[in-house]
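Hello Y.,

Per our agreement to keep a running log of every chain we model this quarter, I'm adding this entry. I've kept the format consistent with earlier entries: sequence first, then predicted structure.
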Amino acid sequence: MSGLFRIFVAQFLKEMKKVVVGLSGGVDSSVAAYLLKQKGYEVIGLFMKNWHDDSVTISEECPWLEDSNDALIVAEKLGIPFQTVDLSVQYKERIVDYMFKEYEMGRTPNPDVLCNREIKFDVFLKIALQLGADFVATGHYCRKGIIKNTDGSETYQLLAGADNNKDQSYFLCQLSQDQLAKTLFPIGELQKPEVRKIAAENHLITADKKDSQGLCFIGKVRLPEFLQQKLKPKKGVIVEVPKQAEQFNRLKTKFETKEEELAYTAEKPIYQVADGKVVGEHQGAHYFTKGQRKGLDVGGTKEPLFVIETDVEENIIYTGQGKNHPGLYRRTLFVTDSEIHWVRPDVALKCDEQMIVMARIRYRQALEKATLYKIDGGLYVDFEEKQSAITEGQFVAWYLNDELVGSGVIS
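Predicted structure for the entry above:
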């Protein structure tokens, strides 16, 4: 067989591959489906219905109805099969119940990261494979790289999207090699304006549709009202801690080991009511999160109050004036062994090893230089500069150049 014919056969086989696209009713997934069809893939559109539990109201609105209809119209325009899959049972068990549990413990979960790990790239992926799909595809702004190993195997890379302003690799920080192997990101090399232009040129109804601002495939959620359905209101006090409090004046500079230093810089201040003054009341410490400014309803301060700590056991919220309050900042965080995830297991640190990376603790945060230190029991992420509102339950993700190689839940 000639080289040219072999290339032709390989291309033909590629073009026959089946891809299930998660059509969300937005412009990004619409264009992802269009691009795959243009490349010759057999494309199927699936819309995920993630909520219709009347016992817990996610939102007074029903955005998924409009989104589902838009997804159907896009599928008809593209001439691809379309159906809706009901994943509401799995979503409640894996995302919503988890959210309630985390908030009850005073932690702040990230449902979008969880939705990708538990729903889109687990339950949804398995459904797609049962339909005979070779891949699933989404409208995420990220890219997939493939490293050819000497033994013939492949290692998959999760790369940042070409559009720095829209890069969504953080939301996929919990994906595994098995999940990446079956995933395509068709718009990862594009800028957002290019995506909208493609949609407009092909008369897709979603071309000018605003980006979703809520939980994945659900829509906007009014968090306090949502949480109050399971976490009952409980009146407590709001305490303002001054910037000069003794907790912020620790000056220890000598350490026997690096691990001792890291444990020190990762340590959270411990507050008591006597450390400040009572300035207001709240309806439940579990409704609030670090760094939060809105919802405190306390006036008369020179600078806005920010939540610097919540104590759900004593039901107390500790606050400080101004976004530069020292209570908001820490340099180091810790991830326990059970919460460490390596997208690239081949570069995972062994005990006593370290790695210089770029890292972020929330979506859209600029990447910051940090050093990972693996110890027995977990991993320290030590930033070069102090970070604002390091929040338990959120995800920290670390990168080598533009590749996201690992992540973990902040303890």
